[in-house]
Write a structure and sequence with these properties.
Aspartate Aminotransferase, domain 1; about 500 residues; four-stranded antiparallel beta sheet; Aspartate Aminotransferase, domain 2; aromatic-amino-acid transaminase activity; alpha/beta; binds pyridoxal-5'-phosphate; 17 helices
């Protein structure tokens, strides 16, 4: 198919919320083109004057990713021998930089053109969106948390329904519940969403969930799932997408851990770090995005700089059909207005100095570093379990292939007082009882693991309770080897004491 034959996205207006339909676009934003025209006598909008802006120059220091070759990165990471570079935004006068006057001014609520251009090229080279439908676009926002909240507002009225994985990032669940939206959990296994469960629930909706509307949206965390650490198999994505088409559902793909993908973990091994000769080889190792198969424009993908540059930059973007993004844009106009011009200026300055290849080098560096962290964590975890001889009391989730989380399950039926506690707390309370018990004992010993129940998605029809295990989530992202070793030793000591 040639580019001219690629069709436009479908229209999803029939799924929009009342709030979205009653919100128009801001008239003032249509005047921005005049403001940017130096010939214009622009008396039309309340903009403060440049000479009164607090900053006149921005300088930053970053890693010099542009000058590395892909296959040099692992070497540089091992020796921590990453060169630094300085960017000086007003003095360098690069035409790709965002002008300070524009960065600090109102306007550009869609995102600064230079940054939009860089990111669009990056996304297309990665996911080939231009090959699936023609009118795709991106919209800069303040990160995925805002991305989700704004999509809920565009699509959902109170009482509408969204499908979630049966464990889910807790802020997502809170945002959904706060807007009075129903959620229905879909089962997951070690390879992500169980397609049969999704198909079963959708095809039997009227009998299973007769009291709530059919879902308009589905939300997934495909790589390095938070909290489960799992990665959704690419083959399942195609099957899931077909179901979304059949039941007319829009997909929210929240993928902050995409670039934290790692090679498979092999127990106790610390293999040589991978070396890639070119980008193609590296990209071939990565999962697909739903964007690559989305011929309808029913996928909205949330990208975030939080895990690649630091959560404090509060910058992300949504990729999807322009028709839908225009509605998100209208919401931006009355909420965040625009994402921080300073963050955009800094990120844009850094990315354009690196170039597209340097950006990929950066992701390669993340992969190498995260692989080392994950391998150290899991090797230490398995060694501790062996040393303390507690294998029968603990199950470790399939090793993460992306992201920063690992999950363990305590086999509570093996606990010495399980039968007594089951009578005391009942089948609805037994898992919570043990979760609290271990959480508190760990905290007393100065160890923090997140409780699995914080992430459980309730089904409106029944309580999903576990009788045989309780879950705990750990992370290796920002933990030193010393703290990891000591933390896991504390964990195993307490498990041994409790279960023996
Ligand atoms: C699945 C998921 N989505 C979103 C976020 C938050 O992203 P952001 O900082 O871009 O709002 C997190 C952070 O932990 C997350 O795990």
């Amino acid at each position: 198919m040639t580019i001219d034959q690629i069709k436009e996205s479908l229209c999803f207006k029939h799924l929009y919320s009342q709030e979205c339909l009653s919100r128009g676009s801001s008239p003032i934003k249509t005047t921005m083109k005049y403001f940017l025209d130096p010939e214009f006598h622009f008396l039309g909008a309340g903009m403060p004057p440049l000479e009164l802006f607090g900053f006149q120059n921005f300088q930053f220091q970053t890693f010099d990713m542009g000058s590395y070759k892909l296959n040099e990165i692992p070497e540089a990471t091992i020796n921590n021998n990453i060169r630094l570079m300085t960017g000086d935004i007003s003095r360098d006068e690069q035409d790709y930089d965002i002008e300070i006057a524009q960065a600090l001014q109102y306007g550009n609520s869609r995102g600064h053109p230079a940054l939009l251009k860089f990111l669009k090229e990056h996304i297309d080279s990665m996911f080939q969106v231009s090959r699936v439908y023609s009118d795709w676009d991106i919209l800069i926002n303040n990160g995925s948390t805002f991305g989700l909240e704004s999509c809920l507002r565009v699509f959902c009225n109170r009482g509408d329904t969204i499908l979630l994985e049966d464990l889910c990032y807790s802020s997502t669940v809170e945002a959904i519940e706060a807007q009075g939206i129903n959620h229905v959990p879909i089962k997951m296994d070690s390879n992500g969403i169980v397609v049969e469960d999704l198909a079963h629930k959708l095809s039997n909706w009227d009998t299973l969930y007769s009291n709530i509307p059919k879902p308009k949206l589905m939300y997934v965390i495909p790589n390095g799932h938070n909290p489960k650490g799992t990665t959704l198999k690419d083959t399942r994505k195609v099957e899931i997408y077909r179901l979304l088409q059949k039941y007319d559902i829009v997909l929210l793909e929240d993928d902050p851990y995409f670039w934290l993908q790692m090679p498979d973990y092999v127990k106790y091994e610390d293999p040589e770090l991978e070396v890639f000769e070119n980008k193609k080889q590296f990209f071939a190792k990565l999962s697909k995005s739903f964007l690559s198969i989305d011929t309808d424009g029913r996928v909205l993908r949330f990208e975030s700089f939080s895990k690649y540059f630091g959560p404090g930059v509060r910058l992300g973007y949504v990729v999807g059909s322009k028709k839908i993004l225009d509605n998100l844009w209208n919401y931006h106009e009355v909420s965040l207005q625009a994402s921080s011009g300073i963050s955009q200026l800094m990120i844009n300055g850094c990315l354009n100095r690196w170039g597209q290849d340097g950006f990929v080098n950066w992701f390669m560096r993340l992969r190498t570093t995260y692989t080392q962290k994950r391998n150290f964590c899991l090797n230490t975890l398995y060694k501790s379990i062996d040393t303390f001889n507690i294998n029968e009391f603990i199950t470790v989730e399939k090793a993460p292939q992306a992201g920063m989380f690992f999950m363990i399950y305590l086999n509570i039926t093996k606990h010495r007082d399980y039968s007594t506690n089951l009578i005391k707390y009942g089948k609805n309370g037994i898992s919570d009882y043990y979760e609290n018990l271990f959480f508190e004992k760990f905290v007393e010993a100065k160890l923090l693991l997140a409780k699995g129940s914080w992430f459980k998605v309730k089904d409106p029809n029944y309580d999903v309770c576990s009788l045989d295990s309780c879950m705990l989530r750990g992370t290796y992202a920002a933990v030193t080897p010393e703290k990891m070793t000591k933390g896991l030793e504390i964990m195993c000591t307490i498990i041994k004491e409790e279960f023996k």
